[in-house]
Amino acid sequence: MGSLHYGGAVEPILIDDRALTHLKVVIATKLRRQESFTLTWKHPEGRDHGYSAIWIHPSIPLRFVFDEPEPVTLNMEWIHQLMNSANSSGGIHLVDEILDDDEI
Questions:
Q1: How confident is the model at residue 100, as a pLDDT?
Q2: Where are the beta strands (DSSP E) in 33-85?
Q3: 3-state DSSP helix/strand/coil percent for the chain, to nearest 5?
Q4: Tens of pLDDT along 74-93?
Q5: Among the residues of 55-100, which ranges form H helices?
Q6: C-alpha–C-alpha distance, residues 21 and 72, integer Å
Q7: Closest alpha carbon to 54 in 24, 91, 81, 26
Q8: Which of 24, 60, 70, 80 has its CA 20 to 30 A from that of 91?
């Protein structure tokens, strides 16, 4: 389980390493363009019900921490899906990865 440290928040946002790797690509792309957006995710099972959202802005410190020592293989379709949501008025909605039958 990876973690996203954002701004001065004491508690990191816990996100699966694979999902966090894909988010990192999309977030870095948006921030490199100086674009702000929201990031929304469902709370992990066993925690509070519901979801959270944060405003991602280039001036707010951001750090990605991964538990796995090796980077994961990227699913370009998932990146495109996340990027499309990032470019919408609703911002990024962290959705589950959809695998092709060949990848299962």
A1: 61
A2: 37-42, 51-56, 62-65
A3: 30, 25, 45
A4: 999 999 999 998 988 888 98
A5: 76-86
A6: 7
A7: 91
A8: 70
